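# nightly structure sweep
# worker-07 picked up a monomer target from the shared queue
# config: single-sequence mode, recycle default, output format = structure tokens
# input follows
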Amino acid sequence: MEKKIIQISDIHFGEKTFSQDLKNNALKQIEDENPDLIIMSGDLTTNGYLHEYNDAATLLDELRAITEVHIVPGNHDARNVGLIHFEKLIGERKFVHIDKSGGFAILGLDSSEPDINDGQIGTDQLLWLKSELEKTPDHMCKIVTFHHHLLPIPQTGRERNILLDSGDLLRVFIDYGVDFVLNGHKHVPNVWMIENMVTLNSGTATTRKLRGETYPSYNHLIIDDGEIYVNLINTETGYKRKIANYSVKVDGKEYNICSYKHESLQSP
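# output follows
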């Protein structure tokens, strides 16, 4: 059964380059796509202030009128004790979503740290993650999302604002057979493949805080029987292009990505 997922990140209400037009474009585009699920990978706000969270909550109400939405916080959301507002206005900082008909499970983690740009999952969340992954059937596609990039992103300059315990987290992912990792943070879309696991980064959807020749964008995943497709959607124009596709199968009781093709991310 085909399932459509929108992954959107780095909205940044309060950012000087935030664009109301881009936000409206994204809403209209997502409504037209009619996805089964929306994942927001952090940085709804810029400074974690209440008025920024109020704007974010209004956007979430509009998105939730379209479909189910799951959100994790980013480093900007944790500024100025902002996670208090996150929990009151947005929701829990980690989540589990199981879609039995679609054959996938999504787990959300909070990688933010108060008032710093580096991130960390931490021992408590690692233990929680292991427990939840142990309960997830092996025949399901296992997807994990959090804000900070797990692996370095090309064309983003000096490596900084990193996930401090990325090695420990990567070991858990490999040991427990995680298939997809969805991140944001660097404002540059990217896809890597490591140990039969895909790491997919979203750009910024609603700002022009952009590096190089990138453009405002978000990701569109289609999970179908035996195939997963990833499209990149330009928020400015609505142009959609395929950046990756994967052939998958359940070998015995285990879900496996058995082949893949990644397209160039340099073309417009």
